[in-house]
Amino acid sequence: MIAPLRLAWRLQRWEFAFVVLGGLGLAAVAFWQAFDMRSMLTGCGTSSAAPACEFVYPFQTTHGNVVGLAQTLSGLAPFLAGLLLGVPIVAGEVEHRTALLAWPLSGSRARWLAWRVMPVLAISLAVMAVLSVAADLMAQAYLPKSDLGFLHHASRGLPLVMRAVVVLALGVALGALMGRVLPALLVGIALCVGLSVGLGLALDQWVPSQVMTEDEGPEGLTGFPAVTDLRYRMPDGEIIGAQEGEIIVEQAYAAAIEAGQDEPDPATLPRPVFTGISAARHGEVVLRESLALGALAIGLFGLAAFVVRRRRPE
Amino acid sequence: MSHLTDTVLEARGLTKRYRRGVLALAGIDLQLPAGGITALVGPNAAGKSTLIKTWVGFEKPTRGSASVMGIDPWRDRSGALAKVGYVPQSPPLYDGLSVDDHLDLAVQLRPGFDRAYAQQRLAQLDIPTGRGARSLSGGQQAQVALALALGTRAPILLLDEPLASLDPLARREFLHVVSDAVRGDGTTALLSSHIVTDVEQACDRLIVLGIGRVLLHDTVAVALAEHAVSLPERPDGVASFAAADGSRMSLVRGDGDRPATLEEVVLGYLASARSTPVAA
Prior knowledge:
The structure holds 2 protein chains of 2 kinds.
Chain A: H1 2-11, H2 13-45, H3 50-60, H4 63-95, H5 99-106, H6 109-142, H7 157-178, H8 181-201, H9 203-206, E1 210-212, E2 226-233, E3 239-240, H10 242-258, E4 271-277, H11 282-310
Antiparallel strand pairs in A: 1-4, 2-3, 2-4
Chain B: E1 7-17, E2 23-33, E3 36-41, H1 48-56, E4 63-68, H2 77-81, E5 84-87, H3 99-109, H4 115-124, H5 138-151, E6 156-160, H6 168-185, E7 188-193, H7 196-200, E8 205-210, E9 213-219, H8 220-226, E10 227-230, E11 239-242, E12 248-253, E13 258-259, H9 262-275
Parallel strand pairs in B: 3-7, 3-8, 5-6, 6-7
Antiparallel strand pairs in B: 1-2, 1-4, 8-9, 10-12, 10-13, 11-12
Helix pairs in contact in B: 4-5, 5-6
């Protein structure tokens, strides 16, 4: 494994340097923030103002900005790493005509592709795994007594790693299809935006949304659910849509004013409720989403292999 | 399988038409026996590269078939490539890799790659293997690509215009290494070029390709023995063409005013192709 890794490094040294240094640098910042935050909160725990410390300190110090930036970059990292490492694997070889040398030498193009992809995948997985753990620790340190649930879902833990894998596969496939690095990168960026938005919208495809009780709501302290919709619950328990509920509330207020009252009887009004996935089911969503992304990555690698098998090397 | 037992490269009615309608190969029939060096000669766009790339499995025939030791390279590319060492035009070596790295890469990619043999070839030419491959001269880069092809220990070498960008000394050294490998290992080499004088000394056989057709295929010795030059030109000749001094001459089969040089044989057949439109 050493020789393929060494050669892969030399073949894509700038991309590797960017991803490894960037990824591990970001992970280092996240680890530092996590431990710094823990130390601070531990310190607060001994003072008389402990509850205030827990919730106020992180938000009112510069840590909040660094943590926010690190979380944003952690969310972007799998997309950047996947495209930067994946696209040049085939497109770079075709663009620089080195496929003319490598493909006949290898005989089997599938073997060549596997030989090129495996070290890149290994490095990418290792860097993203470290980053995902660091981002997870940072997020947990920030809110030590909360079930993080869906908070920063895509920028920590397994979802971050799986996004890196699927984007790497997408990059390889795009590079194979287009045979040019820059156009494939541009198309890849557009597709990644679509993928990111699509995965966000698809959360309730993995487990169905349900009406959440108040203590599961986003204001609650027990966790961060994935809120997918706002609805209303009628006094008889029936769930109605947000628009319909707002109309009923408006009509109730209008009727109360007409009757000379300040406001309608609260017991007759529909109450807003959230629908979504509770924080407790986050693990289930992560597992199902990861399986789907894994299957997508395998499909994209398969597509890349199919294209490489049939395409001209220049 | 009807091909001759010692045929290593074969084309049967091989036609290749590119998407934009360009006809690169127009129904080529060719059988290349094992051993020796065959020069594949023709002008630019004659179809030399396309023919070689079809044997390497880069191009799918539009009609007809190609085979490498009886294996169809489009249907069983791995099987065909196991028999072939290929040197592409303007050897595309990797920017970030040293010569040693290229040898390591070949070991990784090609089962049974003979690194020691390739390294020995390079050492004989004093090529520094620790240096970046792209920092070497054009001749040295061509030698590295040749060493990679030779290290495969494949029975067939396909060399796609490797001499085109080399200076005369580098061309001679390259041909010397090819000759050495062919004579020493019994390899069969097919060397495409449009520079006839370079291949004259090194090659045993000659294929003249023009506008996608085989115009002549014979041993160099027979081609020279059977052709002569007539001054002035004769209507019954293979074709007429201009000499270096501007006078007209004809290439004829049989007796003429003097024996033809290999360059004149090639020029005569290429001129004949120009006067005969291709039908595909």
